């Protein structure tokens, strides 16, 4: 059984991401954990005063528990899930710390979240919470852009820079497993933005891996030279029927390179597809 952690701040964006995940994994044997994290900075003295005779901690998390219970009930009815298929959790902690604790205690296989929370700035596609999770939480993470309507991931794009190897476990155990499970065609872009000297060596290595897979998948393989990773990927997405983007990150480096279109490292209104992150080890 797979275990999936669904993050929510009760924003429409986070609930849309949850619905995407439930559609994606419909019919599969999944245990879901629905997590809402309360931050100390979100409380005021008025919050403490309403505690009355209750322990303060219980008074603070009680409203969130009620909202989570109602959300679980709605999702179970909407997706015809069994009573015990979604367990809800509330934590009072730093977001990334809370997520890491749940990953360890529940043996989580994937984290699912939206790109922005309820207070996310509209001009910045990746909210600070999303960025922190991708950077600091070592677990496959599926990020759903705001307003994205579910469609099966029939075509998945995988941009690779010159330093990423297909022999990485993130590719063999993560991306290949995903593509096989969902019968998704994999569009591999081997991108050399600055150094085309290693093209032939990398291409030979890549094709050897793809042609000797234990479970063959449908794939396309392309080499792109002298174009930044993000621009190459974005152009390909505009001209091909891609449903999902997947990345292998190396301690933030490739993720930053993928996102950076300027020195500000911000993307405005460009993330239009779900993004599935795997961490290199």
Separation of the first and last Cα atoms: 24 Å
Structural class, from secondary structure content? alpha/beta
Major sheet summary line: 10 strands, mixed
Q: How many strand units?
A: 10
Helix content: 25-40%
Number of domains: 2
Strand ordering within the main sheet:
3-2-1-4-5-10-9-6-7-8
Instruction: Return the string of H and E elements.
Output: EHEHHEHEHEEHEHEHEHE
Please sum up the structure shown:
This protein is an alpha/beta fold and 281 residues long. Helix content is 38%, strand content 22%. It folds into 2 domains: 2-144, Rossmann fold, CATH 3.40.50; 155-274, 3-Layer(aba) Sandwich (Rossmann fold).
Structure commentary:
By secondary structure, the chain is α/β, with parallel strands linked by helices. The chain has 2 domains: 2-144, 3-Layer(aba) Sandwich (Rossmann fold); 155-274, Rossmann fold, CATH 3.40.50. It is built from 9 helices and 10 strands. It has a 10-stranded mixed β-sheet, sandwiched between helices. Strand 7, helix 7 (199-211) and strand 8 (219-225) form a beta-alpha-beta unit. The longest helix is centred in the first third of the chain and has 24 residues, at 56-79. The chain is elongated, with a radius of gyration of 20 Å. The two termini are 24 Å apart. Residues 117-126 and 261-269 have low confidence and may be disordered.
